[in-house]
Specification:
55% helix; mainly alpha; 98 residues; single chain
Length: 98
Amino acid sequence: MGKTRKTYDIHFKKKVVDLHLNDGMGYQTIAREMDIDKNQVRRWVNHFQEEGMKGLEEKRGKAKGPGIGRPRIRPEDPESKMKRLEAENKMLKKFLDM
């Protein structure tokens, strides 16, 4: 199985970012003290500087816009089902006439 990714809450990320920006601690020092990777610290600082608190929110598993991601399953209304079936029949008749 794959490696399980650990998630951190937004308050922990903000604390890490503040240690770098306000206290002037280096990425390596923060990483060692907080037991996280230094690249993760750098990534959180960059996200915070670009987007503010919104940049520290968890983004995994969220669709980026309408129609993106797995489609929702809803029962098809009779009118649209009839139109779809008529179009299928028309297409099949075309293939049979060839």
